[in-house]
Amino acid sequence: MSHSNKIEIVAADQNAVNGGTSSDRQNGENRNIELAAVYVSDAQYNRNICFSTSPQGIRLYKFYIHSCMRIIILFFIFVDLALAIFEEPAIFPFPLWLTLLDMIIYGILTEMHLYCVRWSRVLRPLLLVNITESRQLRRAFRSIRNALPHVLYVFFLFMFSVLMFSLMALKLFGKRGLVTSEGRAYFTDYLDIVFDLYVLVTTANSPDVMMPAYNYGIMFSVFFIIYIVINTYIFMSVFLAVVYNNYKKHLKEEVRQLVRAKRRNMVQAFRLLQEPRGDEPVVMRETWNRLVHAVQPGISAVHRELLWNVSDEHNRGYIGRPAFIQLADLLNIQVITLKSRIHPLQIYLPGIYNSAASRCTRCVVQHRFFVYVYDLIILVNAVFIGLDEENPFISYSEWVFLGLYLLEILLKLYAFEPRAFYARHQFWNWFDTIIIICALIATILNSALKSSSNYNSREILDIVFILRVLRLIRVVDSIKRFRAIINTLIKIGPTILTFGQLIIVIYYIFAMVGMELFKGTIQFFENGALKPGHEFCGNPLLNGSAFAKNNYCRNNFNNVISSFILLFELTVVNQWHVLASGFTTVTSNAARIYFVVFHIVVVIIIINIFVAFVLEAFFVEYNVSTSGLQTSLEKKIKELELGIDQDQLEGNLIENLETNDNDLGPSGEHKGKPSVMFTIASKRYRTIEALLQRMFEADLSPEDDADDEDHDNSLSPELSFPNPAFNTT
Amino acid sequence: MSHSNKIEIVAADQNAVNGGTSSDRQNGENRNIELAAVYVSDAQYNRNICFSTSPQGIRLYKFYIHSCMRIIILFFIFVDLALAIFEEPAIFPFPLWLTLLDMIIYGILTEMHLYCVRWSRVLRPLLLVNITESRQLRRAFRSIRNALPHVLYVFFLFMFSVLMFSLMALKLFGKRGLVTSEGRAYFTDYLDIVFDLYVLVTTANSPDVMMPAYNYGIMFSVFFIIYIVINTYIFMSVFLAVVYNNYKKHLKEEVRQLVRAKRRNMVQAFRLLQEPRGDEPVVMRETWNRLVHAVQPGISAVHRELLWNVSDEHNRGYIGRPAFIQLADLLNIQVITLKSRIHPLQIYLPGIYNSAASRCTRCVVQHRFFVYVYDLIILVNAVFIGLDEENPFISYSEWVFLGLYLLEILLKLYAFEPRAFYARHQFWNWFDTIIIICALIATILNSALKSSSNYNSREILDIVFILRVLRLIRVVDSIKRFRAIINTLIKIGPTILTFGQLIIVIYYIFAMVGMELFKGTIQFFENGALKPGHEFCGNPLLNGSAFAKNNYCRNNFNNVISSFILLFELTVVNQWHVLASGFTTVTSNAARIYFVVFHIVVVIIIINIFVAFVLEAFFVEYNVSTSGLQTSLEKKIKELELGIDQDQLEGNLIENLETNDNDLGPSGEHKGKPSVMFTIASKRYRTIEALLQRMFEADLSPEDDADDEDHDNSLSPELSFPNPAFNTT
């Protein structure tokens, strides 16, 4: 079916070339371009959704994938998750009538014998996982699920080891009548020993758990040393290795499928636009231009031209299938188009701007020495911040520093073209300006409040302090090696955010369960010293426990924010056994299961995957191996003498501007040649998929790329989706 | 020089072939073989020492590399390191006269104005690093040194981040008048804050350090969460990534050099033995046989034959240079020669052994069911161990279990050939037998002591308990997946031991410094409750401190063993700030430097390298990619139908034996063909270098292997060592 369809389109195209101009044909052509553009866009962003190819279907699909819709969906998911703030146990309780309504609905449902245990809250975050936009999240979950069996075997062996050591500990220490520093009997109950030794694996109770035995006899420390070496160092490394290895393996398989799906989309687009020429079908330049414009309306004409030059190496005016398929990847390479602009002051006040004094100023500002002077100022500022701000001298110096920083920005704006200074990739300029302006506003507000009334707002002062310290971070940018490390961290940022989502989903589930199990068992009283029972967190069972002694009362499950903070503390692991023992004391020993399961899921699995991912992403960044595609683009840029030095760009010493001029003018004119320059933001990835693809580039076998015609017959059903509407045109 | 030398030798060989039989020539030939054998042995074990090639020199060199010498050197190093046990602060103080002698020497040296501060103790472990046998250790140190600059940049950035956060903490919390749970002022001194936040990176004081701020206002927890995410999770992952990446890079370079040196040695050996044939020099089979015998006197004739068959693929009777060079690697592949033997009982008591009852017994023992029954017995035994052993019923059951285990071993010895059962690779059989025999002896000894006198030795009972539990470990062997994991761990064992050495060197240095700084400041009293001052570790400064409250008095630097245990606790990290604060209280705040430096060196660098190495070794084991050399050997074994199923071997269900028959008989006779079988212990590495080489196999460029004639001119000086004595022969 898809085949006959193709021939029809080709015929139509042929007619168009032969001079046919009926609006019907024109229409069909437009639709082809529109459909092809959707395919290319799907390939570019690795979407893999089946949609109807009727004109209406395309319109609906474009609406569905529009960013507005995404934002609306995310907003509703946020509202759904935020319900936890208002539900019992709530931070802001609902008004009575809403609670009543809720109760009535619940009552009616119960009366009607509908099964309605309220476990839906626990499943709520799964909504976040199941929307189109969280492909990465789903991929992470899938990879975890696939890695699980291998991890389980290691886990069983690890648990076997813990059980064996516990048995040994019971026999060695159980009968000696030792006591812990809290006066409890030491290692007499098997299940308690298992828990204590499990905690020891996390190192949270080291060396306390060892001390009674060590004090009794020095040789008994050997038992604990062997235990820690085997279970903490070796087994935990093996966990990391197994999680890493399996996660990577499955991710690689997923990326391979992604590459295949992308190719399939591009082949679909090619079929719609191809025209026969000689032996093989090709796409003409004119069609290609329209396609690129349809895919990315904001692309500049020069950028488009550059991409065409890369695709059509021999300047033949048409490209074959392999060159066409590159398009999705080419569009994903971020090319920064630069145009040299004249400083506005030079236009409006040329006399002053070109004077000797002005030139000298600009020279000074652009000099390296200027940077060193300001680095020194920052260091002096750091010392002043450290001193007591109630000293009036120190307090006034703050105004001096603020003035100096403002002066720096103004001088730079004078020396450099402002639009170039605030170009999108000039991270540190933006950072500086925002911080300084915020600090200025906050400092003025603070002193205004201070002088007008006697009211001294701590909140504003806190913000002022934070901003003052943040200002100092700028010094990092002056040191090249530091900049490199930070750039790498910024690059792997999106990936880390994916893990952020993953962790929020898991935290949410555990928070919901924890709130059901433990809400209200432990109380925290603000300004507690005045209230009765504050010394045992409002629960007499905790009287004298380590939990109460350590002032941990605020670590409770009484609302969703406290729960999240508590879960974070459990993730950090230290003292988690004290936190767990607090909750087991007020409920039962079975509560340990909750904490151990949390530890296994979050620390052993998720954090290990996180570490594995950071490692892998770092290695990719470190061992720079630019992909062939990027190299060819870079080569072309150099060939056309349109290149710009990356160092120059980073040193922000050139006057440049990122433009988005949208002229669809005639091709082949390099009218602004010296004023238009390109650079490849070679290591920034538009999509996480691009990073993933790059990570596994070396491992992807060539046949994934050289996927040939034969495979087209085995297209997945969703891609050979029947298209009756289109057939009838 | 080396060239002329070669020609001379070749001529001598030529004469020998042509029927020259003078004892002089014979002698020269023997010497050539001897020297070549040394080169091959150097290549095999990756030694790279320059030695004189005179007959005397060779003899001395062979003596030097002999294992006896190694043992002697290791013994003296051990004695040297063990001095720490007797030196002040000592476990066993020296007798007075020795101390006096020491003082007199010291006094004389001082009188003679010789510079003699006694810092040599700290440098003592460097001796261990500098002997020939610790190549791996030196390699590890070199790789660390090379990775250091990169790690330092990340470390500076990390410290900058800690300093900035500390400044922010000072401004945010310093003026609020908060107190910690111990009643001290919270976050008022900058240096204290830096230390507290450094400790927070190690998570050792989480969540305690956060609680005062968190109790004051819930939003302040955000400060700590951001801090932990950035500094603990991200920076520590980056540390691992940077250490991993750089360590691996440098190690790869080292391995490349190793491969080159090995090749050079083999080329040297080839030159000594080559004879011209056609275009290229070759080595004849006869010479090769003598060489292999000289290199590895214990090799069996069949094994040697197998190696020749692999080298001489076309059965020409001689091999060229490339095939000859393989020899070092071929010798490193562990081939297990198996011979089926007849059970001794069958020889001496054939009637009984072949009777129906006997056959049935053997059948039962070899059945899977037999294994299951004993797994069940082990599980029941585990429950019994857990129960109270003072119950007479339980106490008697121990004898039953001992009897059952003994019966199992005897039955297995009856069913399987004893020498095959105790073959070198049958780890679990050895393990079982040793454990059972020890348990039997200890149990008998224990009950003898118990009944004869009223004295009940706790030490022997402890050993009995440990052996009883160890017996249970055997159950792991029955589960295939567990066996695989354990085998992997055993395989990477030697590498882990290298790190053990590395850690001992570092511990020793820190222990010596720690003993100088802190000896005697903290006291531990055995049975302390009776002595005054026990509640503050004999130091009034510690009265009421967390150190004393936690019963940490035994964690001190008063002798070398305590120091090592304390350093291990510091490596585990948890509560290290409490330990450190104990020592800062009794000395000065500057003592913190010692503990922070220890943390940086051991935890951030050494442990990360350890994790990196375990990961890398695990990946190699997981993603099995047998090297080409092994595959060709395996192919040959299969071709000759001498192979044996690895599973069969592991299941120890065949009657096999490892032999070392040393017959240098005529070649080409497969007289014992059906009774001699081979298997490759394909994943066991004779040397750590072999593991390393395998780890980086995929990354080593082929030119390292295809290193050709051209390179021979650039031989390193030590290899073109002048050889006057040899020239005169």
From TrEMBL, chains A, B:
SUPFAM superfamilies: Voltage-gated potassium channels. It is a multi-pass membrane protein. It holds the Pfam family Ion_trans. GO terms for cellular component: membrane. Residues 68-249, 367-620 form the Ion transport domain. InterPro entries: Ion_trans_dom, Volt_channel_dom_sf. The chain crosses the membrane at residues 63-85, 91-109, 147-170, 216-244, 369-387, 393-415, 427-448, 488-510, 593-615. Residues 702-711 have a biased composition (Acidic residues). Residues 702-729 are annotated as: Disordered. It is found in: Membrane. One of its GO terms (molecular function) is monoatomic ion channel activity. Keywords: Membrane, Transmembrane, Transmembrane helix. This is Two pore segment channel 3.
